[in-house]
């Protein structure tokens, strides 16, 4: 048996790029990405320079396969019905209310997915968890499928994504590993093999790791927690460097040369952001607490607390430079995305730092080359503690870098390449979140 039709539920940062690459590498498979958000589907079918997700190389792939064997549709029922393999790539945000609020993953969209699959399936399906999920979520999915569909047989696999935004296409082409978790039953292993065969068309088989479902589910949370831990560790040391006169860049280099540690994720910054790290660590904290592992929960929770501390500490450096009063000061915010080469601003350090500066009296001019103005406005309205800031006329979102360069004070919060190429007069004051331990108050970006 060979898979001929794939349906992916969820047209976001995971579903879109992943399915585009599968379609490119498996031209014999029809791949359809479905989503209840019709505007998002319309955008995926629209101009290539305005796709909902910005990833270097993604538009070129979509151009090659869209309409040939890659399709974007709002017909959820029809595409579930005809698919043999269904990926679930919907959002799993942190719960905002109820048991586990503020830490546990909100599984409402995953559960809705499972109910749709049960409702519209008239033949056997391989259902694949692509979203980041708490360990043992497959149990709940299987429970929904078995209770609401008595016709089809379902195999549940875990296939977590390990994509870094900004390098997602490269990560998909040359994955460190592809992880596939399935039941150790005959039918479970047949399902695992079918998914292995898809990835094996471009990923070396030695990089495809098969495990049980629970190991695969937990591996994604654990991987993100370990990476975030490194970021928070080096950021905590940047505070000590500033107190002692040590240079965090030199310290990072020295630590990274130890082969047991390595150099990756040892660059001090204003803090990590994105849709995964904080959400996944808090999920891990909740799981540890749920299973009675209080000390383990406290250990991992501290990683998030250090990250919040780093954002607040960086903002305080700006405030202290102006003797504690930013009233009337005009500050340029360079970068709103949580990192370069993405238009994703979720959990971006820029959101928190800008809010602190604004509350201290500053006027803000914000520029990001890829994050759209409406996204920045939505972030301010929805994520700042009060939503009347935009009415005070102290925030301006500009569309060109040249519109901001007349200001005298800048805060760099995203490592976009174009920020490295401009030269700003040394009379300007630069607070560089990419180099938080910078000892000079004034320097040229171009240096």
Task: Give a verbal description of the structure.
This protein has 447 residues and is an alpha/beta fold. The protein folds into two domains: 5-211, 3-Layer(aba) Sandwich (Rossmann fold); 226-447, Rossmann fold. It is 42% helix and 13% strand. A six-stranded parallel sheet has the order 3-2-1-4-5-6, sandwiched between helices. It has a five-stranded parallel sheet with strand order 11-10-9-12-13, covered by helices on one side. The model is unreliable at 438-447 (pLDDT under 50).
| Helix amount | 40-55%
Given as residue ranges, the uncertain stretches (5+ residues, pLDDT < 50) are 438-447
Tertiary shape: globular
Main sheet strand line-up:
3-2-1-4-5-6
Count of individual helical segments: 15
- Report the strand count: 13
The biggest sheet, with number of strands, parallel, antiparallel or mixed sense and barrel status, is: 6 strands, parallel
The fraction of residues assigned to DSSP E strands is 5-15%
Name the helix and strand elements from N-terminus to C-terminus, one letter apiece: EHEHHEHEHEHEHEHEHHHHEHEHEEHE
Which short descriptors sum up this protein?
Rossmann fold, globular, alpha/beta, five-stranded parallel β-sheet, 2 domains, single chain, 15 helices, disordered C terminus, 447 residues
Task: Give a short synopsis of this structure.
Helices cover 42% and strands 13% of the residues.
Detail the topology: elements first, then pairings.
Blueprint: E1 5-9, H1 15-25, E2 30-34, H2 38-44, H3 58-65, E3 70-73, H4 76-82, E4 85-88, H5 108-120, E5 125-129, H6 137-148, E6 154-158, H7 168-173, E7 178-181, H8 186-199, E8 208-211, H9 213-244, H10 248-256, H11 277-290, H12 294-321, E9 330-334, H13 349-359, E10 363-367, H14 373-383, E11 395-397, E12 409-412, H15 417-421, E13 429-432
Parallel strand pairs: 1-2, 1-4, 2-3, 4-5, 5-6, 7-8, 9-10, 9-12, 10-11, 12-13
